[in-house]
């Protein structure tokens, strides 16, 4: 197949996709409160804010932004029905509490360890003599340990924990198969610990994102499959007719990952150029078809719940889902620009990268219109700050990624720190920040305990926001200058190294702030786990139940 044919076919496909997008607008798919979008709310809940991480004062301000006068009204005739629905929700939360807590504890441990090794790796880039006494602390190993702790430690553990907590709430039933998830968690972490140990002693498969030896990777595949089983069992026992879009995203992600990882790790199958192609097929798909769907599912659930209104257009959310599933599969090929791979394969990857603008635009427009008139709620809601910022970073990282795939941009940015900056914009500024917000919402429900020090949430937010900002800007500028220096035939290669030094120091500064933020987060998490602070009984409320009218106390659950 020649390049002209590929371009023609992809052009036709992209125009068709754009036509579907325009058709959705013409069919009034921006209706404010379609029934499907209201599935996540119980009777009378629309109009009530919900943020377990907020203080009573913050919650009062949050409610005032959403409704005039600062009070939400529940129809007295619906009170009994609402009591039953909230009792069922409490049962659903209780069924997931232990499983979710286990996953999130693992996530916190891996986050701290990954941050430590990432900071060590960053320092080594501008201070090569730092910690050179031991082989396992050399840059090649610490950087690889950092990547695997993030990719298979912090990110999946946080994603699994949040997904398992949301699942019964979205299906309005209790969790089924939780023991399979716990067994899967044990196998996964055992495999990860063994894999990290092999990497530390210099044994790995030599492919980025796939360094863990395939013999050990079997444990991750089995663990991931077991963790996905509760989705099947709980779906079979659901009490809702309609599956909310978050279920679509979570279901796809939980089954895509084991398949992706299994194909990527099959021994004796991938060789040479084909192996490089598979490597970046996996590398990009694990980001776009696992981490991204889980984070989007979280945004689609937590953002409407916090502001107390359904998403603006439910049908746009479905367009975003199917466009992501359809367009993302071949995006990774643009990392092979200039390599010995078929020209049409690179072209197809570039075009599909640009076509990703469709699902990103669908998501971004939908979230903006949902928040329209409610952006002031971010001032009061600690959780919403993380969720909205993460959602905005998804838009930014996706648009940057689409244009970075272009050959004219890739010529400069390829093999530079610019690509590292972009990777952190997606996996950290988008995914991780959304997970932070989700955990702040989830943990009070899991523990029936308030966050002991809400101010620490604000400290965490500003540390990681400032940190990733410095990190991203420093590496973006330094990486671009590095690329220009490498393309200049009159300059020696070492000039491209020298020009990056101030920006690598900026990277370390940003990474230090992010690590400090993670330590604040971890300490706060441990305080809650040890039951330090305010006690709760039943659903996590932001006010004392006795001090509220009955309708308001119910609405806070």
UniProtKB/TrEMBL annotation:
Transmembrane segments: 6-25, 98-120, 149-168, 180-200, 212-235, 242-261, 281-302, 314-331, 343-365, 425-447, 459-481, 509-530
Record Gene3D superfamilies: Cytochrome c oxidase-like, subunit I domain
Source superkingdom: Bacteria
The organism of origin for this protein: Castellaniella denitrificans
Domain Cytochrome oxidase subunit I profile intervals: 280-557
Entry protein name: Cbb3-type cytochrome c oxidase subunit I
InterPro entries, alphabetized: Cyt_c_oxase-like_su1_dom, Cyt_c_oxase-like_su1_sf, Cyt_C_Oxase_1
One Pfam family here: COX1
Keywords for this protein: Electron transport, Membrane, Respiratory chain, Transmembrane, Transmembrane helix, Transport
């Amino acid at each position: 197949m020649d390049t002209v044919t590929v371009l023609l076919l992809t052009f036709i496909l992209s125009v068709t996709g754009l036509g579907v997008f325009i058709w959705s607008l013409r069919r009034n798919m921006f209706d404010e409160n379609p029934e499907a979008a209201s599935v996540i709310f119980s009777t009378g809940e629309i109009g009530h804010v919900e943020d377990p991480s907020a203080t009573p004062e913050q919650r009062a301000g949050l409610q005032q932004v959403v409704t005039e006068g600062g009070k939400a009204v529940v129809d007295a005739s619906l009170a009994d029905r609402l009591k039953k629905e909230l009792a069922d929700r409490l049962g659903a939360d209780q069924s997931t509490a232990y499983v979710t807590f286990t996953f999130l504890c693992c996530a916190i441990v891996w986050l701290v360890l990954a941050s430590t090794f990432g900071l060590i790796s960053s320092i080594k880039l501008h201070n090569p003599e730092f910690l050179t006494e031991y082989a396992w602390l050399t840059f090649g190993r610490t950087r690889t340990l950092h990547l695997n702790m993030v990719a298979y430690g912090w990110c999946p553990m946080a994603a699994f924990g949040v997904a398992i907590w949301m699942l019964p709430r979205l299906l309005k039933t209790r969790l089924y198969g939780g023991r399979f998830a716990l067994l899967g968690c044990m196998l996964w972490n055992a495999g990860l610990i063994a894999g990290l140990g092999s990497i530390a002693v210099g044994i790995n498969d030599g492919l980025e994102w796939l360094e863990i030896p395939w013999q050990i990777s079997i444990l991750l595949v089995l663990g991931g499959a077991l963790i996905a089983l509760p989705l099947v069992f709980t779906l079979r026992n659901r009490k809702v007719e309609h599956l909310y879009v978050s279920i679509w995203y979570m279901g796809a992600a939980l089954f895509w990952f084991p398949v992706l990882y299994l194909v990527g790790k099959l021994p004796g199958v991938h060789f040479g150029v084909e192996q490089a192609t598979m490597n970046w097929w996996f590398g990009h798909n694990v980001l776009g078809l696992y981490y991204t769907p889980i984070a989007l599912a979280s945004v689609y659930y937590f953002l409407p719940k916090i502001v107390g209104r359904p998403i603006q257009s439910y049908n746009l959310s479905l367009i975003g889902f199917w466009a992501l599933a359809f367009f993302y599969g071949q995006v990774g090929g643009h990392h092979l620009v200039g390599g010995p791979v078929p020209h049409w394969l690179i072209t197809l990857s570039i075009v599909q990268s640009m076509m990703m603008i469709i699902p990103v635009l669908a998501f971004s427009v939908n979230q903006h219109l949902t928040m329209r008139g409610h952006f002031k709620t971010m001032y009061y809601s600690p959780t919403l700050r993380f969720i909205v910022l993460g959602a905005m970073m998804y838009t930014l990282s996706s648009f940057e990624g689409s244009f970075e795939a272009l050959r004219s941009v890739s010529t400069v940015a390829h093999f530079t720190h610019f690509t590292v900056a972009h990777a952190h914009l997606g996996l950290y500024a988008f995914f991780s920040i959304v997970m932070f917000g989700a955990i702040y919402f989830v943990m009070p429900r899991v523990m029936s305990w308030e966050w002991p020090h809400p101010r620490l949430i604000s400290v965490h937010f500003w540390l990681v926001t400032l940190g990733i900002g410095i990190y991203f800007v420093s590496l973006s500028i330094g990486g671009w200058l590095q690329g220009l220096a490498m393309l200049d035939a009159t300059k020696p290669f070492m000039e491209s190294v020298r020009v990056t030094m101030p920006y690598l120091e900026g990277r370390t500064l940003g990474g230090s702030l992010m690590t400090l933020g993670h330590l604040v987060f971890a300490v706060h998490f441990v305080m809650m786990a040890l039951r330090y602070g305010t006690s709760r009984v039943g659903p996590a409320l932001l006010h004392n139940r006795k001090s509220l009218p009955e309708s308001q106390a119910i609405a806070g659950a």
